[in-house]
Amino acid sequence: MMKALGLEGIVATETALSLVDGERGELVYRGWRAKELASQYTFEEVVYLLWMGHLPNQEEADHFRQKWSQNRFLSFSLCQLLEGLPREMGMMDTLRTAVSSQAQGQGLWPPNKEDALAILAQVPSIIAYRYHFLQNSSLPKVRTDLSHTAYFLYLLYGKEPEPALARALDAYFILTVEHGLNASTFAARVVTSTRSDIYSSLTAAIGAMKGPLHGGAPSEVEGMLDQIGDISQATEWIRHRIIAGDKLMGFGHRIYKTNDPRAQALRNVAKELAGEEKRFRLALEVESIALDLLQELKPGRKIYTNVEYYASVVLSAVGLPTELYTPAFTASRIAGWCAHIFEQAEVDRIIRPQSEYIGPLPK
Ligand code: ACO
What we know:
By secondary structure, the chain is an all-alpha fold.
């Protein structure tokens, strides 16, 4: 049987973008704790920090925001593409195809910030356009005065969101924008290392993000909470799943062997937003039961709640339909992928690891 190596513990690159400290439970973006950024800064400012290396002053922030919001329009050909894709195609597949379709023309190497900003600004519009098309409703008029996350909610619901909802989504975006060499970021860097274009790198990253072991988890958490339904069922349901060898969605992490700092910060965001709601109380109780059972049935594995667990509660509280959870995660992480794409392009060395052959040799 083949060993499942999973590149665990392998350092594949240096990065100045983020520190993921799995022992101490710390996540740092360019010297700033992510949870502090999430409570004090906007998503736009954090993207600026990742791309430019420092937090913007007022003038830089205004200029960046202005350029960002001017990129919100979708071209006629992109709208046609979004209408022409099969209706049963999922949102992540749609997004992957839409991003891929933007790779046109020459001179796409090295990747540049103008192209990155254009695609980052358009992701909410792409998601919302397709969402309304499938619902036979219409996309609201473009607005340039709203923040990235407020605009996303505005596009989906056709009205300006409550500030508390936009703020909660902003915190979620900040906490999920960047996370070291996770699977989708690694995919983006591998493609960039071949000097391919930014659209190809982002297309690969979206493909990786879609998987249920990575970005697909929040909707699976939602499904898990739905299936548990009532707290009286939780112990039996969870015990049965662990014994059957199933993974509990929203638990476990390759790097964090203590609390995931993002999960803790999102728990607070969820509490502020939906502290009185049945869903939040169910999530809290399921977490506590699951952690006890994991300790009993998987001793020594150090399994804690990961970012996806409370992401599902926050995204549900801001009113997002379940099928848009992973696309929303993508709308934030795409900015982190771009930062890695710029960094990898500077390194400019092809990523090409080795495999150990375990098959037969020729006679
Ligand atoms: N539920 C139950 N058991 C678990 C879980 C879980 N969620 N996660 C790990 N384990 C157990 C495994 O069964 C294994 O037990 P064993 O030693 O008896 O075989 C042990 O812990 C080690 O698990 P691995 O699968 O080897 O851990 P790995 O580092 O490969 O996986 C991963 C990490 C993929 C996140 C895993 O924990 C998982 O599948 N979790 C559920 C999916 C999820 O929530 N994904 C989101 C991750 S965060 C993100 O991507 C943004």
